[in-house]
# Entry
Amino acid sequence: MLLTKSMDVFRHPIEHLAMVPIIVDYSLSVIWSLFFWLSMIAFVGVQVLCLVQGDWSRLITNFCFAAIFISIEIVVGLIQLIMASYFNDRGRSLKYIAFAPWYILIYWMVNTFTVAVEIGPTIIQILKGEDAGVWKSPKRSVEVVAKTKEEGNQDD
# Structure
């Protein structure tokens, strides 16, 4: 969507003013997703290097820093959840707060992973001229539509 629709928005930003913040937000999300996984690969590489070299103090220090960042991520996510729950349903959904940290961590990792994995094939599709990232409803055959109508009439 970003590569196919953003040029129209930036050519005529006044006409598509409502889309500009969405495009900017989505662009930053894609960049953050790629940076997250590149940083993760670098972190694992450094940790393996520390293990091989026997540099235990650096290994433990790196894990402590990672734990601090993960803790900050969880706290920010919990604040978002509490605020959203308060504004959406006056806090009734807070009964699920025990699962929130796991949800936040797993959702963010899966989301960034799918973006990082699919960005390459999507760019290739767009460069080939294919319409990537756009949902097209599958065509239904006449027989399937007729059969569905017949089954609906038999239930009467």
Observations:
- The CA atoms of residues 85 and 93 lie 6 Å apart.
- The mean pLDDT is 80.
- The chain has five helices and no strands.
